[in-house]
Sequence to fold (619 residues):
Amino acid sequence: MTVPWGIGTIRLAAALLLAAVTLFSQQGLQPADYAEIGTRFRAARGFERAGDLDKALFEYRAILDKYPTAVPRVYHNLGLVHYYGRDWQSAIEAFETGIALDATMVASRLFLGVSYLNLERPEKALAHLEAAHELQPTFESALHLGQAYAANLRRQEAIAAYREALPLAGDEAPNVLYSIGQAYLGLAERIVNEQAMSHPESKNTHLAAARVFESQQVYQVAAIKYLEAAELDPFNASIFFPLARMLAILGLGVPSDLALERYWSLLPDVPRMAIDKSMLPKEQVAEIGTKVEFEGILRSLPPVDPENLPPLPMVGREVNEELVRRLERSGSGVWEAGIEAASAGRFEASLESLDGIRAEDDAWLRDYLRASLHVWLDDYQSAALLAAGKPLASRPSQPVRILRAEIFRQASIEAFGGLVDEYPASCRARLVRAMNFAAQEKAEAEAEFLAAIEACPLDTQIRIELADYYLWNSQYDEARQACLDELEIHPHSSAAKKRLGRIHVQLRDAPRALPYLLAATESDPEDADVRTDLGRAYELLQRWDEAVAEYRLALELDPTLNRVHYVLARLYRQLGQADLAKQQFDLFKRNEDEARQTRTARIQRLRKKEAPGQFAPGR
Fold:
């Protein structure tokens, strides 16, 4: 990625350029040397100001050829010229040589780290940016340190760095807010994807999916996911209010009323408040309403017994079972007060009680409840701090992980919402709107993408998102051009190369696909999708052994790519390796059968008339 620069870094760099002159007398130089270096140095600076970078390079190299170790900061100047000429590899060599002679050159470390980021080598960038920020923290050092952490998938640390940069951001605030939103979104997606793979049919996975579909305004699917979660956890009140809302949007009044009534019956101490239908999105046709018996399934749920409610109906069964055990050994009454206040909707009072608990063994349970309360109070920053803390981050249970994912997702939405509200004309705000339109499959997405590019023509991410939008709509020529435009401004973009490779593979143009895919594997050797595309390119070129090797590697990297087993079976059969072909086909068939059984079980569950029994402590 090519990273933006703020005025603070330019001022810092200029100060260091001028500081080099003051060091000459400290290097054992003769007056004639001093005069020659000063003359060439001033000439180089003049050429820089005039935009003649080649002549500036000549002058700096002339100094260093004659005095290679006398004035280390000249290497910084040389590196800057290469940097602004977008020759990042040469910039890296100059900065590293200078730092080896003088490790105190903070700006050289900063520019060195950013140069590595521009070459998409974040693992090399990180140590230099950490050192620069520790020695001299600035907006730029915090911003680029955040980018390095994010590129190394250390997103929590990235968010902390971005938040440090935000108060100093000025005109860069839209970029920082966008980066915060992206980091939180990455955290949420990683957790949800992991849970969807390991627990595809759990109530927590259904609930997480429902919230995502709701945020994307895919209300029909959201309603089904909420209903699936409700069947598996029928005494979790947090499911039924959004389910009622989804059903109201779909025009399904009776099921909506049933869901809302169940919500209130689980929370008898909370003042009742009807859904304000005037505030709902425009009503959608319930295309799936005739296929899913919302009313029948809701009526089939076990009745709510007011005398046998969970301790805290706003959380799931597993957490309530833990609460029952905790309350049984509680002697202070603090837990009871906190839970009672939460059940009555007095969230601030509940927080006050729980904040006073100092329980080592129950730290995760205390923080789970505190984080949930902050969510219910729409305080996502406080919730995110708890979600990132050790008690929750180290807890492997699915309810905790899904809560953390929801908190991070909401924090992402909050950051993006602040960006759009405060800086609506910025290219980042336009990008957010474009991505939202694209997720909803709305045609307005293209115009917003193009407006974002016009506002920030050198931004290196917008064209990639535009290319993905075009690919989703099978507009291969447009997607290809967007990627080529990206490479014009960012020749090292592995994202553009990956997509160009896929486009040419889909167009069966393997010779043109191959160079892009090989370059993409150099940047990320563990990208299973790129390996699959590379296998397909080799297959089109009839380079069978290489195709088999890439397909097998793709499966090692991502065992869920079941279709690759089928492709390998076909290739082995073509190569006359019947045993290997049968092995791969059997694997493909077994995985397909398991997936089919899972789908069948889900359909049967949606049609069943019996549901789990009433909440009981310890069940």
Notes: Residues 302 and 613 are 6 Å apart (CA to CA). DSSP finds 32 helices and no strands in the chain. The radius of gyration is 29 Å.
